[in-house]
């Protein structure tokens, strides 16, 4: 039985929003309105569910995810910061930076025109002592605004609160629910250059739509929106973005999934990751006091 994390004091919550001890006793905000249900863990500031009314779940979280203070939650929308994957320097560990291991603070929860808008924040002081903060020991403020409605919008603003120019990578590592990744098509990347992390590195150029026939792990240089066409669920899932120059597409496929204890060989077909990001030479550089916002909107429609 995991220890239950004491629930923090929070500002008044609007109707339809609760703060509870979720999986593993970790604090979770649960949203239930006429438009949607949703879920955000303070751990990682991580959305772990969004289901708009009349649709099947759109955001996928692994049935085998670990909900533990020192682990990253497998699924949902992990926020990768201040680096992506192995980072741009050899000593950058853990993978995807330290934000997904940190506990965010809820600043505000409000009803807004029928949607629920949540604002969470993470600073260098909140993250102090986490693995990786020794590699990137700089003052920062990350503000994550999550809006649950008939669409899901996640806006992450990074502010350089230090006295020096800083650079970082970031990603919204969204796990999208699909009927079967082997049947989906992704459009919106035609013509985009990409690096292939599992084949010949490249750079390559995407020709036409992207389909899946094996492990796929690609970093696209692209500011375009993408659409996931899912014939099995009979829907199109659109990922619209601003402030993002990279898109990562990842499917672990069977062997890699089987080797990951928090994923497993039986679940990988039901997800595909589409990750609006700013990575490699598209990492963000901020002057002291400056900020950058990446806004991503997820929407579904029947096809
Ligand atoms: C993707 C990366 O974004 O995340 C992959 O492109 C990586 O290379 C995947 O395997 C999962 O990473 P992690 O650290 O959550 O196991």
From TrEMBL:
<dbReference type="InterPro" id="IPR011013">
    <property type="entry name" value="Gal_mutarotase_sf_dom"/>
</dbReference>
<protein>
    <recommendedName>
        <fullName>Putative glucose-6-phosphate 1-epimerase</fullName>
        <ecNumber>5.1.3.15</ecNumber>
    </recommendedName>
</protein>
<dbReference type="Pfam" id="PF01263">
    <property type="entry name" value="Aldose_epim"/>
</dbReference>
<dbReference type="GO" id="GO:0016853">
    <property type="term" value="F:isomerase activity"/>
</dbReference>
<dbReference type="InterPro" id="IPR008183">
    <property type="entry name" value="Aldose_1/G6P_1-epimerase"/>
</dbReference>
<keyword id="KW-0413">Isomerase</keyword>
<dbReference type="InterPro" id="IPR025532">
    <property type="entry name" value="G6P_1-epimerase"/>
</dbReference>
<comment type="similarity">
    <text>Belongs to the glucose-6-phosphate 1-epimerase family.</text>
</comment>
<dbReference type="InterPro" id="IPR014718">
    <property type="entry name" value="GH-type_carb-bd"/>
</dbReference>
């Amino acid at each position: 039985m995991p220890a239950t994390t004491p629930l923090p004091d929070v500002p008044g919550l609007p109707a339809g929003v609760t703060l509870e001890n979720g999986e593993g006793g970790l604090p979770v905000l649960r949203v239930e309105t006429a438009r949607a249900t949703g879920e955000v863990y303070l751990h990682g500031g991580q959305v772990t569910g969004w289901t708009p009314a009349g649709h099947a779940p759109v955001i996928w979280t692994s049935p085998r995810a670990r909900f533990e203070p020192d682990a990253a939650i497998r699924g949902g929308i992990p926020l990768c910061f201040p680096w992506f994957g192995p980072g741009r320097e050899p000593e950058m560990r853990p993978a995807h930076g330290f934000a997904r291991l940190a506990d965010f603070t809820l600043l505000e929860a409000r009803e807004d025109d029928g949607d629920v808008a949540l604002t969470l924040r993470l600073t260098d002081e909140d993250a102090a002592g986490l693995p990786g903060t020794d590699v990137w020991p700089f003052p920062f403020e990350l503000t994550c605004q999550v809006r649950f409605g008939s669409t899901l919008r996640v806006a992450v603003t990074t502010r350089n609160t230090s006295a020096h120019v800083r650079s970082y990578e970031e990603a919204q590592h969204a796990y999208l629910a699909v009927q079967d990744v082997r049947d989906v098509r992704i459009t919106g990347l035609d013509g985009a250059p990409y690096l292939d992390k599992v084949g010949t590195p490249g750079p390559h150029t995407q020709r036409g739509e992207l389909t899946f026939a094996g492990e796929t792990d690609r970093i696209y240089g692209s500011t375009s929106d993408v659409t996931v066409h899912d014939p099995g669920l009979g829907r199109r899932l659109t990922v619209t973005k601003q402030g993002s120059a990279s898109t990562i597409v990842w499917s672990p496929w069977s062997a890699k999934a089987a080797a990951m204890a928090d994923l497993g060989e039986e679940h990988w077909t039901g997800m595909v990751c589409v990750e609006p990001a700013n990575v490699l030479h598209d990492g963000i550089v901020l002057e002291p006091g400056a900020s950058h916002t990446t806004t991503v909107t997820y929407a579904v429609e029947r096809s």
